[in-house]
Amino acid sequence: MVYTYLYNAFKCATMQFLRDHFEKLITLTDKEFQYILQFFRSRRIMKKQFLLQEGDPVTQEYFVVKGCLKSYVLDSEDRSHIMQFALPDWWISDYQALVTQSPSSMFLEAVVPTQVLCITREDKERLCAEMHKMEHFFRIKNAYGYIGLQRRILSMLTGSAKERYEQLLQQYPDLFQVVPKQDLAAFLGVSRETLSRLYSKNK
User: Fold this and answer.
1) Which alpha helices (DSSP H) does the chain contain, by range?
2) Could you give the 3-state DSSP secondary structure of residue 177?
3) Which of 171, 158, 168 is nearest to 195 (CA)?
4) Model pLDDT for residues 96-111, shown as the tens digit of each residue
5) I want to staple 61 with a disulfide (CB 3.0 to 4.6 A). Which of 56, 93, 117, 118 is the partner?
6) pLDDT digits over 146-173, tens only?
7) Among the listed residues 120, 121, 137, 17, the one whose alpha carbon sits nearest the alpha carbon of residue 67
8) Residue 122: is it exposed, middle or buried by C-beta count within 10 angstroms (0-12/13-18/19+)?
9) Which intervals hold domain Cyclic nucleotide-binding (predicted)?
């Protein structure tokens, strides 16, 4: 009985988190939101568990409710190059593979125990076709995602290691509480030693 109560409370909190996320950009009635929920499935991932590995088929994208995910590629020397972190309230997938329906070119792994809500490509397209509000929501989110990617590319091309570090710290301070320094270094494109020096100077 206690377990059932806790499970229902957890489920309600998760669904409210998703609704709050949508309603930052659109307004939904209770009936509309209940319909939207049919398209999502909840999944929990243990620390260091993969959602995707290189070569996997990609059929879903993921909305992070709790925890943190990272997407990365490995070079010919098995060095990790992190493309993105996803904290709660963020979306993540291998979007190139999802859109082109090709095998994944990256890994998607849980940094810490993580809960996500999953939606398939087909269900997202159906939802957007049936509800203009949701089409509008995802169109705006895609635009924000493109802006974020452009900023990251410009930062990597023109910013110093110190500037990249300070920008990341200012924009996403929570990452520094969750993500290991080794992963932060891989994301910033610096060595672990360089990151440690930057960290010490900002204390």
Assistant:
1) 2-22, 30-37, 95-100, 121-130, 132-158, 161-171, 175-178, 181-188, 192-201
2) helix
3) 168
4) 999 999 999 999 999 9
5) 93
6) 888 888 888 888 878 888 888 888 888 8
7) 17
8) exposed
9) 24-127
Residue percentage of the chain with pLDDT more than 90: 61
Query: What are residue 53's phi and psi, to 5 degrees?
Result: -130, 160
Sign of CA dihedral 91, 147, 73, 193: negative
* Contact predicate 38/124, CB 8 Å: no
Structural domains in the chain, CATH included, are 2-158 (2.60.120.10)
Tell me the two tokens of residue 72: 């990365």
Instruction: Give the type of residue at 158.
Output: T
Q: Which amino acid is at 177?
A: Q
Q: What are phi and psi of 65, to 5 degrees?
A: -95, -40
Both tokens of residue 67?
């925890």
